[in-house]
Amino acid sequence: MDFMAQHANPILLLLGLALFPRITTAIMMLTGGLLSGGLLWWLGWVFAPHLLVAFLSLPYWHSNPALVIVAWFFALCGTGGEAETARRKFLR
């Protein structure tokens, strides 16, 4: 199924997942829109939420490859940016 057809407000969801992945996935879990996937899912949610979102986008590759590419772009940039910011903050 296509991502845009499956979710009620896909643009708002995509912006939330790109900018606030922990909050958005937590809200989706509470509303039943996203189920947890076990220990690795929770470790991803805690330590690398952008990568978790990118992995969750993989089932949509056949119907919307641009969505998956953008998700992985945000994952790599977001996780790297967070790591660099944390490194600068703690090295002061």
Mind explaining what this structure looks like?
With 92 residues, this protein is mainly alpha-helical. The chain has one domain. The chain contains six helices and no strands. It has helices spanning 3-6, 10-19, 21-31, 39-47, 49-57, 65-90. The protein starts with a helix and ends with a helix.
- Count of folded domains: 1
| Measured distance between first and last alpha carbons | 48 Å
Rg (CA only): 14 Å
Q: Fraction of residues in helices?
A: over 70%
- SS element count, helices: 6
How much beta, percentage-wise? under 5%
What spatial form do the alpha-carbon principal axes imply?
globular
Biggest pleated sheet: none
Furnish the topology, listing elements before pairings.
Blueprint: H1 3-6, H2 10-19, H3 21-31, H4 39-47, H5 49-57, H6 65-90
Helix pairs in contact: 2-3, 4-5, 5-6
